TrEMBL record:
It holds the Pfam family RBFA. Belongs to the RbfA family. Keywords: Cytoplasm, Ribosome biogenesis. PANTHER family: RIBOSOME-BINDING FACTOR A, CHLOROPLASTIC-RELATED. One of several proteins that assist in the late maturation steps of the functional core of the 30S ribosomal subunit. Associates with free 30S ribosomal subunits (but not with 30S subunits that are part of 70S ribosomes or polysomes). Required for efficient processing of 16S rRNA. May interact with the 5'-terminal helix region of 16S rRNA. GO terms for cellular component: cytosol. PROSITE patterns: RBFA. The keyword Disulfide bond does not apply. This is Ribosome-binding factor A. It comes from the Bacteria. It is found in: Cytoplasm. Monomer. Binds 30S ribosomal subunits, but not 50S ribosomal subunits or 70S ribosomes.
């Protein structure tokens, strides 16, 4: 049962954090950012937010720096929007799954062309 609640809270945090980043953050270092997933512990104390950024490695680094700097603001705003006793601590990580999927797809396409 706790797992179901954690999943619901994670989905709500994903929606709200995405909205906060898109509408409320005005940092010029933020690139084209998408929240792909939120992983939250069973006790709802820690949340890892997975982010993809369109652009080169330098733009990704700048975006993660901007998100880390705005972490307190994002947590505060998320706490106002999601009704929990205690708002989870937030950490941001770059989600490499899309890049990995694109790489696998290109390798499969190359193999098919060789046949």
């Amino acid at each position: 049962m706790a797992n179901v609640r954690a999943n619901r809270v994670a989905e709500q945090l994903k929606k709200e954090i995405s909205d906060i980043i898109q509408r409320d953050l005005k940092d010029p270092r933020l690139g084209f950012t998408t929240i792909t997933d939120v992983d939250i512990t069973g006790d709802l104390q820690q949340a890892t937010v997975f982010v993809t950024v369109y652009g080169e490695e330098e733009e990704r680094k700048k975006t993660l720096e901007a998100l880390e700097k705005a972490k307190g603001f994002i947590r505060s705003e998320a706490g106002k929007r999601v009704q929990l006793r205690k708002t989870p601590e937030i950490s941001f990580e770059f989600d490499e799954s899309i890049e990995r999927g694109n790489r696998i797809e290109s390798l499969l396409r190359e193999m098919k062309e060789r046949e």
